[in-house]
Amino acid sequence: MSRLVVADAGPLIHLEQADALSLLELTGEILVPKTVLDELEDGPTDVSELEFSVEQVTADTDSVSPHLDPGETAALVVCTDRDAILLTDDMDARNTANEEGVEVHGSVGVVLYGFSRGALAKETTKCTLRELKQDTSLYLSTPLIEHAIELVESDSAGW
After folding, report:
1. Domain 4-105 belongs to what topology?
2. CB neighbours of 137 closer than 8 A, spacing ≥ 6?
3. In angstroms, what is the C-alpha Rg of the chain?
4. Is the pLDDT of residue 58 over 90?
5. 117-151, pLDDT tens digit by residue?
6. Residue spans per domain, the chain
7. What does the alpha-carbon distance between residue 1 and residue 25 come to, in Å, rounded to a whole number?
8. CA distance 35 to 80
9. Contact at 8 Å (CB) between 6 and 75?
10. Residue 64 to residues 5, 87, 100, 102, 119: CA-CA distances in angstroms?
11. Which end of the chain is more exposed for a tag (fewer CB within 10 A), N or C?
């Protein structure tokens, strides 16, 4: 069964910084709202090697979730309209998605999913999780990373 995942800028940026962007392709069909691509144009993130489709969101994103940035809002609108999974590292966007009944995962979840699908060995997964914490702009607490590593150790990782 193929599923649709919609990414906002966070996971694209952070997974690229950890040299793990290709793991996104394991999660399903990837859709990136045009608003998110516009955000990425201003930074160093290169998603040209990633297979994804782009969608222009026509909803009034300013009124949908005014506490979220335009990319997060556009991604959430697409998820709601198309019954898709949201990929975000933003806590406000995660909370809003949960309130809307949208399944949501972040960069750590994508790495764990890659492990559960056999794309990463145990040691590589643990190194990638540590890289997300140490070598990217994503703030991750030590307890969160240690919990993720425990999931890998117990073979309990995945969606």
Report:
1. Rossmann fold (3.40.50)
2. 13, 14, 17
3. 15
4. no
5. 999 999 999 999 999 999 999 999 999 999 999 99
6. 4-105, 108-153
7. 14
8. 16
9. yes
10. 20, 18, 11, 15, 37
11. N
